[in-house]
Amino acid sequence: MKDTIRQLIQQALTRMTEDGVLPAGLTPAIQVENTKDKSHGDFASNIALMLAKPAAMKPRDLAEKLVAALPADAAISKVEIAGPGFLNFFQNSDALARRLEAALADERLGVTKNGRTGRVVVDLSSPNLAKEMHVGHLRSTIIGDAVARVLEFLGDTVIRQNHVGDWGTQFGMLLAHMEENPAAAEGELSDLEHFYRASKKRFDESDEFADRARQLVVRLQTGEPECLRLWKHFNEVSLSHCQEVYDRLGVRLSPADVRGESSYNEDLPGIIEALRAKGLLTESDGAQCVFLEEFKNAEGNPLPVIVQKAGGGYLYATTDLAAMRYRSQQLKADRVLYFVDQRQALHFQMTFEVARRAGFVDAATELEHMGFGTMNGADGRPFKTRDGGTVKLIDLLNEAEQRAYALVKDKNPELAEDELRSIARAVGIGAVKYADLSKHRASDYSFNFDLMLSFEGNTAPYLLYAYTRVASVFRKLGLGFDQIEGSIAIEAEQEQALAAKLAQFGEVLGNVAEKGQPHLLCAYLYDLAGLFSSFYEHCPILAADSEARKQSRLRLAALTGRTLKQGLELLGLETLERM
Length: 579
Ligand code: ARG
Description:
alpha/beta; Gyrase A, domain 2
């Protein structure tokens, strides 16, 4: 709709320019927004305000001329001028109803991608295998998965890349600990945090151990088979812990999506050579650096990206450069999205720039850091266990399910145990995911079980429940969403508001895909559920005063049900038919 309106305005502007009302050469970016208040129509544009100055006209006069020049369109019932000169467009209810009919008849709810589809690499989760996965990776995993699902739904080819940290000096210490006491180590591996701490303790207390750890790093780098075997074993165990979290979360990640830092090892010398050949390298205190003038430190000197240490070792940034080259050249990505902590923003700005200058990344490949804020505890302080340790994700998910179980049982004591369990799972896991997804990703957020499990407000329980309300209408009738005859007629104010919202689904998904912001979809579904509630309250469905009206309302309800379900699924939430 917005595109249609933009085109109509463009045509009016062209006509006005031809008629000499507007000076030639104006090419404004025409903005069309959804209105908040339906008494102002469905869409609004500030074009007359924008052009008033260059056209040397009063905004309202210009608005009147524009309205007169607007071509008629079946989708628009009227256009009004409001306030200082806004144009308010009212959509034609019949045309809107036809669009919803088309959505209802389509498996994909009438959603198509605006613009061409492409290949999108999504870098998500990417924990360090040396340690237990922590809450930061939970955010990356959940947000990245939701955006990946939306991109796929819109028709893009998504390539998930779990860029795990499976290389580096910490591994020396871990391998030394495995070697020292294989039997004990095997037991300890079930708790990586514990294993890491035990290794670190040995490293700090014994010089002999520390030496052995350093040698092991070198032996690992030279590919000594026994070392490699230990290292592989460690990574397998650690990855299986991650996979357990992914499966519990219902996140679409599998071992096939893992392409860890170690997989770029062999490319690293070539990266340095390529940088040198381009004349980008500068030696500084023995280290190889790329200095970027546009990034300056506190003293105003250019900041370096260090790509090779004085001792010859490579860095996180070097590996990322190799990964960028691989993603652009080998995977042929049109976009590469990095769901990584906001605190790495500078790292990405700088490495993106180096990758461009070095020609590692094609001009046509977009590199986008989708940074996210820190997850804090309910008290707003860094998320830790009572004794200051790292919270194990699996424990967090267990607690969410237990709390959801207690809540649901309290509400429905008569439910059978297995049904209770499956509702608790959907609600508990859904609550953890939704709480994260519903916040603007760049802001920090406080993890709060009470808030996320509330049945009121923008929460998973509220939305899952809203969906079951729609589903129950159809269950009572014994009909599926796709078995309702008749056609949609939009009459009451509540029908109008619900219908207009339903028609925005595709646009919202487009924004999520473009900005990597799933909270936009959460806000949309929350609004939709609220509009359905008032529709349900004011517009009797089964007791409607005519058969045609009943069918029309059922069809609106069916489209609401399908949109809620599809939306929740794209967020990675499991829906329930009853709860
Ligand atoms: N392993 C890193 C960390 O835990 C995140 C990696 C993100 N991806 C990347 N391509 N750098 O901080």
